[in-house]
Amino acid sequence: MRLRSLCEFVGLAVLAVVMVGCASDVEASGSDRSIAVMDVHGRVRLPLEITAGTQASVLVFVTTDCPIANAYAPEISAIARAYEQRGFEFFVVHVDPDVSADDARRHAGEYELDPGFVILDPQHDLVRALGITITPEVAVVLSDGTIAYRGRIDDQWADLGKKRRAARKQDLRAALDAILAGRSVGETRTRAIGCSIPILSER
User: Given pLDDT bands bounded at 50, 70 and 90, which one contains residue 25?
Assistant: First the structure.
């Protein structure tokens, strides 16, 4: 019995090491830079293919009917204006498979988002590649495919139904500032608060 217990313990320990190793590899492998999606003008975009001179791609995942995502629209626009001239490429990613390009364009107009940033991910290729689970949630992807930051825009929403008067931590801005300064991002993962990603129906 002791030998069996020892073997089981060793087996579990080896499995744990293998699982940790696999998780690290997945994390290090980053994202699939060949993922192609359409923007609201019908053009093919490769948001994870970072071109020369670009610091990183910043992808903000949204749905048209998520009140928290919509409430963040002014801050999304403000961050894009502040950082796009500093080498960051921004994308507002619609993840609802039932939202058309026209729907996304109207949504951009209603919430004063630059339609040039807006892309569609109806098959959740970007969602899966970047591990997105909530809207609004942000992923910052470096040229080597590393996800430098993933999570909330800031901490104004402490939880569902719990909104602070003002954010205490500007997580996305802090991550972008760290990249600009050539530093490692201090907090690479934060918990986003918002709406669940729509489930893809079997078609």
Answer: very low
Say what percent of the chain tops pLDDT 90: 71
CB 133 within 8 A of CB 197: yes
Residue pair 41/81 in contact (Cβ under 8 Å)? The answer is: no
Expressed as residue numbers, the domain containing 187 is 32-196
Give the position of tokens 């209603």. Answer: 110
Q: What is the CATH number of the domain that holds 151?
A: 3.40.30.10
Place of tokens 């980053």: 30
Q: What is the pTM (predicted TM-score) of this model?
A: 0.82
pLDDT tens digits, 164-194: 888 899 999 999 999 999 999 999 999 999 9
pLDDT in tens, 84-120: 999 999 999 999 999 999 999 999 999 999 999 999 9
Burial of 32 (0-12, 13-18, 19+ CB in 10 A): middle
Q: Can you give the length of the chain in residues?
A: 203
Task: Please indicate, yes or no, if residue 203 is contained in any of the structural domains.
Answer: no
- 56, 10: one domain: no
**Which residues have CB under 8 Å from 123's CB, separation 6+?**
97, 200
What pLDDT sits at residue 157? 84
